[in-house]
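User: I'm writing a short report section on ligand binding and want a predicted complex to refer to. Could you take this sequence and adenosine-5'-triphosphate and write out the structure as tokens? A short remark afterwards would be nice.
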Amino acid sequence: MEPRLEVGGLTRRFGGREVVRDVSFAIAAGQVSCLLGPSGCGKSTTLRLIAGVDLPDGGTIRVDGRPMVEGAVRVPPEKRGIGLMFQDFALFPHLTVAQNVGFGLPKGTPGRAERVADLLERVGMTRHAGKHPHELSGGEQQRVALARALAPRPRIMLMDEPFSGLDDRLRDDIRDETLAVLKAEGTAVLLVTHEPTEAMRMADEILLMRDGRIVQAGAPYTIYNNPVDLRAAAFFSDLNVIRGRVEGALTETAFGPFLVPGVPDGGEVDIAIRPQHLKIDFDRAGKGPLPTPSHGDAARGVVERARFMGSESLVEFRMDFDGSVLRAKVPWVFLPKPGTPLWLMFRRDRCFVFPREGQPRVA
Ligand SMILES: Nc1ncnc2c1ncn2[C@@H]1O[C@H](COP(=O)(O)OP(=O)(O)OP(=O)(O)O)[C@@H](O)[C@H]1O
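Assistant: Sure. The structure tokens for the complex follow:
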């Protein structure tokens, strides 16, 4: 099946600097993709190019196989079948909720009143239909904005940090409701965010962006568990990093040897472990647990501090082997006293091994 939105080799320069570099991806009908990356990496610019309010220096944009930008073709924004939702969405203050939702549907459109009523019902705003925007809370205004953007049945919805103006609890609810409505409409969604948790919650596919490029694309599970590099891994959580030097495709660490094929002798590697993947074991008169094939060796550390975070505890260790600090997250309550010696180990299939950035890699 033809993707709903297909972007190929999209490039945009400002003053000689490539802000969007060779960006390609596709989104199917009913799919939610999140463009995720730090501030300034080119997310909003990409969205503006797709919306048609800015033009690329290179690349193609297609909607249902029809060229929007390709060769000499430049389809204007209003003819692209694209709906927009931004953080500073503005409802028309002098129009009622129902009139705001109906705004995008020309008078005389068959089924106009039914469409407005149906959307108000779906976003739970039927009883507010006659109110004006200033009589609504932020969350209610957001629901109206969603209904208004959906009224003309856009084939694609572009959303730029649409939930960032809402407080945390409300944001979770509105996100989930928005997702349900968009899925029911079968709209292809491209959502821009700099928050990994928002992307994990919303996306079928995450497009991880950095310095104008998409560095990795995949389902949230894949991106979280198989990051392409250390920076991609660190974008999603705090990371413990153990440094190693390679000899004969192996690096020796206090946690045992690690295989590092493709890194030349003398090369440096980073072994990264998320805090929730460190396993803690007790000290038995100066000895730790025995090594296992799945976990490697245990290394000893001394508790520096332990904090209760609500659903988990965060324990910081000063490691015997090099004096570095490693952080472990433990579900619920685990608050050992500072100075307690404990042993750490981790499952080999839960850590990431990357050659240090900027080093040559042997093919
Ligand atoms: N019209 C413009 N002229 C010159 N530079 C621009 C223009 N628009 C954007 N830029 C630059 O392009 C880069 C990417 O901007 P963009 O707004 O796409 O990033 P972003 O990832 O959406 O960031 P944020 O999350 O902060 O909104 C920035 O360095 C920005 O300063």
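A remark for your report: The radius of gyration is 25 Å. The first helix runs from residue 43 to 51.
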